[in-house]
Design brief:
This protein is mostly helical and about 270 residues long. It has a domain of about 150 residues. A three-stranded antiparallel β-sheet has the order 3-4-5. A two-stranded antiparallel sheet has the order 1-2. The protein is globular, with a radius of gyration of 22 Å.
């Protein structure tokens, strides 16, 4: 289900969102490590799962996978608990507690006739009011949490093999980087003239947007100087505007057929 324009606007402004009777909050940078741990639980490409799970609501599918692994005395892939952790982070449920205890605040309600069929997860707030989230409700909450925290979910019709090819190609063409988030925070703190502790209280989406903006500003200035000196790029200036991102045209995972034939001719 596509989220409304009003919800998208609230997400862009880093505001809380009311949905399914619950309040979802933007996750803060101070919980970035927990967020990265939880992220695979909601940004998984469900089409890549075995067919019997693809038609289920995602939370029910992840629970079924864990249940069946347990039945076979096998180790589960852990995505169900990661999805619950993302829900806890978005609800600010159990803030300050160890991550395991935050996930443990949820109780699974299953079908008595089929214990692998998840009906809902239940939890209490401040030890008083009981709340429940069904797998169908989680579908909508997942969309909102993704928008609030800068996660781009794959479209239901997306081809998982093509998405994997895009990732592989990006890694192949990219320069190896440390990927240390603290280095990024330190750089943004220097550029914004703020202390790192202040950034800890930013929403994660704000850190992402500031990072993209500074990359565009610096990229534009560097490319403008290079272009003035006669530099040309195969696909045009990668940073043609100070204010807008360059639109992605075409699929980078698809290469012209002549490139393949040229490669074969060299073998």
């Amino acid at each position: 289900m596509a989220i409304s324009q009003s919800i998208k606007r609230a997400c862009r402004r880093y505001e809380e969102v009311e949905a399914e009777g619950l309040t979802l909050y933007p996750i803060l940078v101070e919980e970035l490590e927990a967020f990265e741990m939880a992220r695979p639980g909601i940004d998984i490409v469900q089409q890549a799962l075995p067919v019997r799970y693809a038609a289920m609501p995602l939370l029910a599918a992840l629970y079924r996978m864990e249940y069946e692994a347990l039945e076979k005395n096998e180790e589960g892939i852990g995505l169900f608990s990661r999805a619950l952790l993302m829900l806890a982070l978005s609800l600010r449920l159990g803030r300050g507690l160890p991550l395991g205890k935050r996930v443990g605040m949820f109780r699974c309600k299953v079908d008595p006739q089929d214990r692998g069929c998840l009906k809902a997860v239940e939890f209490t707030v401040d030890g008083e009011e009981l709340w429940r989230v069904t797998p169908v409700q989680f579908q909508r909450l997942r969309e909102i949490a993704a928008a609030q925290n800068g996660i781009e979910l794959a479209a239901p019709e997306a081809n998982p093999e093509l998405l994997e090819a895009q990732r592989d190609l990006a890694q192949m063409n990219g320069v190896p980087l440390s990927g240390c988030v603290w280095e990024r925070i330190a750089a943004i703190a220097a550029l914004e003239h703020v202390d790192e502790a202040e950034i800890d209280q930013w929403p994660i989406l704000k850190l992402q947007e500031k990072t993209k903006t500074w990359q565009r500003i610096i990229g534009y200035m560097v490319c403008a100087v290079a272009e003035a000196q006669g530099t040309k790029w195969k696909n045009g200036n990668p940073h043609p505007s100070l204010f807008y991102e360059k639109e992605d045209i075409g699929n980078t995972a698809l290469r012209p057929a002549e490139m393949a034939t040229q490669h074969l001719g060299q073998m």
